[in-house]
Amino acid sequence: MSSSASARAVTAAEPPMPGLPIKLRTENVGMAFLRDDKTLPVLENINLEVGNGEFVCLLGPSGCGKSTLLSAMAGFLRPTSGAILIDGEIVRGADPRRIFVFQERGVFPWLTVEGNIGFGLRKLPAKERAERVGHYIQMVGLEGFEKSYPHELSGGMKQRVEVARALAVNPDVMFLDEPFGALDSITRMVMRIELLRIWQAERKTILFVTHDIDEAVQLADRVVVMSARPGRIQQIVSIDIPHPRDISSPRYLELRDGILSQIGLAHRL
Amino acid sequence: MKSHTWLKPAIFILVLLGVWQLVVFLHPQQLLPGPWKTALGIVDLFPRGLIVKYIVASVFRVTWGFSLAVLVAVPLGLVVGWYRRAEMALNPILQILRPISPLAWIPIAILWFGVGDLAAIFLIFVGCFLPMLLTVINAVQSVPAVYINAGRNFGLGPVPLMRKILFPAIIPRLMTGLRITLGIAWLVVVAAEMIAVNSGLGFLIVDARNAGNRYDLVVAGMVIIGVVGLLLDNWVRSLERSHALCWGFEEKQ
Fold it and tell me: What values do phi and psi take at A110, rounded to 5?
């Protein structure tokens, strides 16, 4: 078991899409948590390079450490070993240039839609701030809800507020941690389309954690398939289908089924 | 439909008043005045303006003692709740002070401030401060990490984080804490006025007994204390429902 695992483990950093300058790099990142006086390895040997403007999905079963990896990239957690570099600098903490969109709703319930989206724009003059907020409210289709509080919105609308709040500070990198996991399947599809539209307009570097294979193949330039306990990079799959993607095309199904069998699942129920 | 919400309690209170009157009527040798005599006692307080004077005096002391306690306890609670080490350092002393009744401070209050408003205000402050502080510390420690991480992500340092994230995040619990603490303040003021001052509703009760066993005025004072306390509680409840403060309460519905 261990020999086959180490044979599969990727030791050299996986290069990003050809032609893109490197935005984010992890060097032998390992994470271990202390639980009941035992060290529990969560991540091992994570080597990854993400290009500027690239859309990368981290895919794996629950508990494979993909959210932990994302939190470490965002600067909320320190890796136990190795280093995470963004623009060549080691990540030492959270930074407004790299915004995290939370799995649990991170929208502030005490602020209106406007207040939430403008939250990161405290230092701008009021007029400019109002313009920016207006622009992103329009972009995520929340016109008419400027003065609404989060409890008056649906789950999908709240998630759009969070995405808009992140975009409003014009970050270089966005980290999204299963952002659409709690939405119904129709809203989820709509949100994916909107996220792709925004990404194509703004070209942020996006790291997107999901356990949904279809979601990963629909969205990503590259899918990083992770194995569990401790989390390792199992395989990196380039999705070479141009947007908008035909999700019933043979290539789509081929890539999806490839990942399915990589994870060890047959594509028949 | 709306009238029903107060109709039932009103009828119940009338029934209780009737029972009270009946019991007093059947046992006239007991010293407790009936509702009718109590009502006359309240009326008795009107002509000299005493009722207004005493209520204002008590509310004045509660306002000062309570406000000072809140103004000190909320910022302190935010800091102590946020810095784990500060909480660890402070917690033992808080736990020792907590079971000491504010009334135990009466001699010290008189020693420091003499007989007067300041002593009463100090006692109310002492009674309100710890419950308020513990409420805030507790509330800060249960703010979801996701809000704190989001705040940090947008570049907030410790002070802005407290102002823009922790403070709004604890408001629902803070409102509940304010209501409970205001109740404590109202309890303490009556006791303080029995000893440390010569005006207010607590003084009215002691004075009525000392100056000729006017038990009708004693019970009248108790009734007024209850009614004013109820009004104060309703006032804080209405704050809970106000839009800017209510986010947590509406979300639960």
Answer: -90, 0
- Give the chain B residue whose CA is nearest to the CA of A75: B153
Q: How far is B138 from chain A (nearest CA, A)?
A: 19
Q: For B54-242, which CATH class?
A: mainly alpha
Does residue B92 have a cis bond before it (omega within 30 degrees)? Answer: no
Question: How many angstroms separate the CA of residue A31 from the nearest CA in chain B?
Answer: 19
A163 near A198, Cβ under 8 Å?
yes
- For A106, the closest of B146, B155, B247 (CB atoms) is B146
Q: Where in chain B are the domains?
A: 54-242
Are residues B197 and B115 in contact, defined by beta-carbon separation less than 8 angstroms?
A: yes
Question: What secondary structure letter does DSSP report for A62?
Answer: T
Q: Which of A151, A172, A173 to mutate to test the interface with B (most CBs of B within 10 A)?
A: A151
Strands (DSSP E) found in chain A: 22-35, 38-51, 55-59, 81-86, 89-90, 98-101, 173-177, 205-210, 222-227, 232-238
Residues of A in contact with B248 (CB under 8 A): 109
ipTM of the predicted assembly exceeds 0.85? no
CA distance B195 to B202: 9
Q: Are B98 and B130 in contact (CB under 8 A)?
A: yes
Chain A residues near residue B164 by CB distance under 8 angstroms: 119
Run of H or E including B15: helix B2-26
B149, B165, B168 ranked by CB distance to A100: nearest? B149
Both structure tokens of B61: 């002391």
Interface membership of A193 toward B (CB under 8 Å): no
What is the predicted pLDDT for the residue at B253?
Answer: 35
Size of interface A-B (CB pairs under 8 A): 55
Query: Which residues does chain B have within 8 Å of residue A158's beta carbon, measured at their own beta carbons?
Result: none
Token reading at A130: 């109002």
Per-residue model confidence as pLDDT tens for chain A (269 residues) = 344 444 344 444 556 666 778 889 999 899 988 888 888 888 988 999 999 999 999 998 887 889 899 999 999 999 999 999 998 888 888 888 999 998 657 899 989 899 999 998 888 898 989 998 998 888 878 888 988 888 888 888 888 899 889 888 888 999 999 888 877 888 788 888 888 988 888 888 999 999 899 999 999 999 999 988 888 898 898 888 888 888 889 998 889 888 888 877 766 66
Are A102 and B146 a contacting pair at CB < 8 A?
Answer: yes
**Which chain B residues touch A if contact means CB-CB below 8 Å?**
144, 146-147, 149-150, 152-155, 164-165, 168-169, 171, 247-248, 250-251
**End-to-end CA, chain A:** 27
Domains in chain A (CATH in brackets) are 2-97+171-263 (3.40.50.300), 107-169 (no CATH)
Q: What radius of gyration, in Å, describes the C-alpha atoms of chain B?
A: 22
Using DSSP, how many helices (H) and how many strands (E) does chain A show?
8, 10
* Mutation target among B143, B153, B240 for the A interface, most CBs of A within 10 A: B153
